[in-house]
Amino acid sequence: MKAAMYPGSFDPVTNGHVDIITRASKVFDKLVVVVMKNSAKNPLFSQEERVRLIEEATSHLDNVQVDMYDDLLIRYAKEKNVNIVVKGLRAVSDFESEFQMAQINRKLYPNIETLFLNTSTEYSYLSSSIVKEIYRYDGDIKPLVPDNVYKIMKDRK
Amino acid sequence: MKAAMYPGSFDPVTNGHVDIITRASKVFDKLVVVVMKNSAKNPLFSQEERVRLIEEATSHLDNVQVDMYDDLLIRYAKEKNVNIVVKGLRAVSDFESEFQMAQINRKLYPNIETLFLNTSTEYSYLSSSIVKEIYRYDGDIKPLVPDNVYKIMKDRK
Amino acid sequence: MKAAMYPGSFDPVTNGHVDIITRASKVFDKLVVVVMKNSAKNPLFSQEERVRLIEEATSHLDNVQVDMYDDLLIRYAKEKNVNIVVKGLRAVSDFESEFQMAQINRKLYPNIETLFLNTSTEYSYLSSSIVKEIYRYDGDIKPLVPDNVYKIMKDRK
Amino acid sequence: MKAAMYPGSFDPVTNGHVDIITRASKVFDKLVVVVMKNSAKNPLFSQEERVRLIEEATSHLDNVQVDMYDDLLIRYAKEKNVNIVVKGLRAVSDFESEFQMAQINRKLYPNIETLFLNTSTEYSYLSSSIVKEIYRYDGDIKPLVPDNVYKIMKDRK
Amino acid sequence: MKAAMYPGSFDPVTNGHVDIITRASKVFDKLVVVVMKNSAKNPLFSQEERVRLIEEATSHLDNVQVDMYDDLLIRYAKEKNVNIVVKGLRAVSDFESEFQMAQINRKLYPNIETLFLNTSTEYSYLSSSIVKEIYRYDGDIKPLVPDNVYKIMKDRK
Amino acid sequence: MKAAMYPGSFDPVTNGHVDIITRASKVFDKLVVVVMKNSAKNPLFSQEERVRLIEEATSHLDNVQVDMYDDLLIRYAKEKNVNIVVKGLRAVSDFESEFQMAQINRKLYPNIETLFLNTSTEYSYLSSSIVKEIYRYDGDIKPLVPDNVYKIMKDRK
Questions:
Q1: F107 belongs to the catalytic site
Q2: Pick from C92, C121, C125: which is nearest to A122 by CB?
Q3: Which residue in B83, F22, F112, F121 has a CA-CA distance of 20 to 30 Å to A142?
Q4: Model confidence over E136-153: pLDDT tens digits?
Q5: End-to-end Cα, chain F, rounded Å
């Protein structure tokens, strides 16, 4: 069985992330979404909340699990024996930073392999940071995030 | 009448900005330079000062106005009924971040349209941040900014 | 009145071109689509046919005209007194070649000004060459080109 | 069982290709290398020769097969029911052309999914064209291609 | 003594090339401009003419020589014992192809080292191809090439 | 005699930096590594420690010196009469920021000239920041930095 993981901070999960999760879940037998600690000081959602929001938004996908982790990704790979990493690429700037990360991971742990999917064109502009910036100015984030994320963000205002 | 806006933080306005303002003022019937709040904690100039410095530096351009705003750009577009945004592009890195911004703005407000001008080659290296860095080290910023900006920055030292 | 031109070879015009034409026609008082000779040896359509196909596909846009030209673009600008050029940008590779062209045009004729629109995300992969390649292999080009282009291409097979 | 295909013209197969094949063969249950007709007029090797050279160079990889095809890739996907495409990315220029191809393929056949691996750093400069250019000038291609390709190319001189 | 070479096809030499030659001649004790055969079928100038045109345009630079060569650059490096290559970079697209070439050269001949200079901003749009395209349409190439090149091209019309 | 400088913050020096130093030391008669103050608040090593670590790691290179400086690079160039700057380029993102810096330096001090070397492919993913991030998580940095840096970092844990 081929299992893959999709790591990120997902603060919050966007429609772009759900698109990658949905497509990657068809490519691999099992997909684990791994919620990493957000390096930013004040995350919008706690790591536990982010796990739950992704679980809800992907509950219709049988082979998707959600986990959380706070250490180097290659340690997670070794512990769980999941050596395939999936990442979404939106643009050239993503490309370079993600490729550096993929190369350093292989240098430190040769068994790990990173595969990239291109973000669907309708989400090519979308990121968690952009969602948060629009949210801060009371802009309409409904078309950008899953319904459950939209509701909880609206309630918190 | 076709009015356009040119948003930015302009802290401070550079010769590169004035080049874009001058060229865009010939393309559109009216151009409004919109000074946005600088997200950095300690701006060099207050928003009011930045407005005045641009007004002085563009006083010879009859169809240019300067305004300030602190909210989402699409709200300014709706309030003032100015649906054309002008931005300068210097390099590939500008290209991607500006295109993301243009796409998200159209997603949130389909009437808005962003047009890009390429920065003149002689200013392709120039940014407000670079001006401030050279200024911090007492480097010569005279060739980089309009005269009025140069004088006020020199006096403040 | 601010008139702009949108030059290209349009062999054939795609939905991506029509998207740029539609959006640019709202920004300028008048838009002239200028069909340039295709430098490729065996164009799919003659220059006259390409003009007609664009006229049909944009007949609902009152301020859009279609013209053809075989010389340097800056000569057309001088002859017709249309000094604004509109171009669509899809990706970084477009960005560099188009910026070079815009810079050389301004070097040769300082009055000319090029403005760029980003191609809508749903057409970011689309080009006349890709349409022709799919067509050559009997792939379905219906979602990629205007209806009139689709019909004439289908009939010719 | 998850099968993937790795399409290309492979004229000739390089060490960079073999690196991608080796790594992709660990990610998927089965990998089919699909040798496409080379669009260039005078290929170095016939399509049949290219198939055989890849078969020899990957004979130690049990789950790798080699096939050939001359039509749209999405037709191969439908015929063989292999909906996962693997591609190697070396640099930004690859990134854009490959992403366009992946997007157009999904537009024409939504079931198809393209995954990208970054070429190992030691092969980031390598392509079939560069091998042929060095070969044409009698340069040493031994470090660039598999042994069997090296021998046959040397013999042909 | 540190000698470097600056290879290219220079068909014709432009003001951008002369800028790189001038600046590189200050960095190295001796600079050899190496005119390579143009791979295009119909060059504007013969290899001998191109050598002479560069010699004339750089006659004021004492430590610059002009040579011609038709084989792999690394063979020239070995024969002449000149292991430093200088190249100009204008844009991201140059960057990738030039870096590939530099890497393959070092792979084939580890003693060779390529150093890059950024083209001066006022020439960032300039290339021999653009000069030839403007020339073909009787555009004004005077500001783009050295005087001697301008005269000979004008006379040939 | 042609002297060049290689400026950076080197916090800490990596195998990628040593690769550039080694190769540049063959190109120029003398190479001065200039350790600039790290703009980050909490550097891993003091400026003096960074100087010493580079001196140790490059002690086998006779024509390499290490210096430190806290002001604009062009002032160092004037004071020491070293007008050649060497920089390593890893990727497109480096390219643009380094070219901006080179252009602004020439604008402020026309005598200064920046030359770029491409980082060897095996270090193309490597940076001081990545070393520090892996170190923070107790990852293995042994293959990424010189031995003396590895030892001192391990002892400090």
A1: no
A2: C121
A3: B83
A4: 989 999 999 999 999 999
A5: 44
Chain F interface includes E26 (CB < 8 A): yes
Mean residue pLDDT of chain C comes to: 93
Q: What is the 3-state secondary structure (H, E, C) of chain D?
A: CCEEEEEECCCCCCHHHHHHHHHHHHHCCEEEEEEECCCCCCCCCCHHHHHHHHHHHCCCCCCEEEEEECCCHHHHHHHHCCCEEEEEECCHHHHHHHHHHHHHHHHHCCCCEEEEEECCHHHCCCCHHHHHHHHHCCCCCCCCCCHHHHHHHHHHC
Radius of gyration of chain B (CA): 15
How far apart CA E148 and CA E53 sit, in angstroms, is: 7
Contacts of B125 in chain E (CB under 8 A): 121
Alpha carbon distance F136, F134 (integer Å): 5
Higher pLDDT, A156 or C147: C147
Angle between helices D147-156 and D47-57 (to 10 degrees): 140
% pLDDT > 90, chain D: 75
Among D19-33, E115-129, F139-153, whose mean pLDDT is lowest? E115-129
Chain C residue numbers with beta carbons less than 8 Å from the beta carbon of D93 are: 93
B10 vs B21: CA distance, rounded Å: 12
> Domain total for chain B?
1
In the stretch 101-130 of chain F, residues with CB closer than 8 A to chain B read 101, 103-104, 107-108
Q: Quick check: A125 and B71 CB within 8 A?
A: no
Q: How far apart are the first and last CA of chain E?
A: 44
Taking CA–CA distances from A93, the nearest residue in chain D reads: D92
Task: Please indicate whether residue D17 is annotated as part of the active site.
Answer: yes
Answer whether residue F60 shows pLDDT above 80: yes
The fraction of chain E above a pLDDT of 70, given in percent, is: 96
Smallest CA-to-CA distance from F93 within B4, B149, A94, E115 is with A94
Q: Is E27 an 8 Å CB contact of chain C? A: no
DSSP-H helix ranges across chain A: 15-27, 47-57, 73-80, 92-108, 128-136, 147-156
Q: Interface partners of D (3+ CB pairs, < 8 Å)?
A: A, C, E, F
Across C3-8, average pLDDT: 97
Helix (H, G, I), strand (E, B) or coil at C29: coil
Q: Which chain A residues touch C124 with a CB distance below 8 Å?
A: 121, 124
- pLDDT: which is higher, D137 or D5: D5
CATH of the domain at D90: 3.40.50.620
Interatomic CA distance for residues B109 and B43, integer angstroms: 30
Give the H or E element holding residue E135. helix E128-136
Judged by a CB distance cut-off of 8 A, whether residue A99 touches chain F is yes
D125/F124 Cβ within 8 A: no
How distant, in Å, are the alpha carbons of D46, D74, F16, F117, F147 from that of F19? Answer: 42, 45, 5, 10, 14
Which residues does D40 contact at the CB level (< 8 Å), separation at least 6? D11
Q: How many Å is the maximal CA-CA distance in chain C?
A: 46
**Nearest partner of B92 among C70, C98, C26, judged by Cα:** C98
Residue E71 touches partner D, C-beta closer than 8 Å: yes
Q: Which two tokens stand for residue C76?
A: 């057309």
The answer to whether A139 contacts B72, with C-beta atoms less than 8 Å apart, is yes
Helix (H) or strand (E) segment spanning residue F115: strand F113-118
CA nearest to D131, candidates D107, D154, D114: D154
Overall average pLDDT of the B59-77 stretch: 96
Can you give the pTM of this predicted structure?
0.91
B60 touches B72 (CB < 8 A): no
**Structural domain boundaries, residue D100:** 3-156
CA pair distance E101, B64, nearest whole angstrom: 48
pLDDT one-digit tens code per residue, F65-87:
999 999 999 999 999 999 999 99
Q: Is the pLDDT of residue D4 over 90?
A: yes
Contact D120, E53 (CB under 8 A): no
The string of pLDDT tens digits covering residues D82-126 is 999 999 998 776 787 888 899 889 988 999 999 999 988 888 889
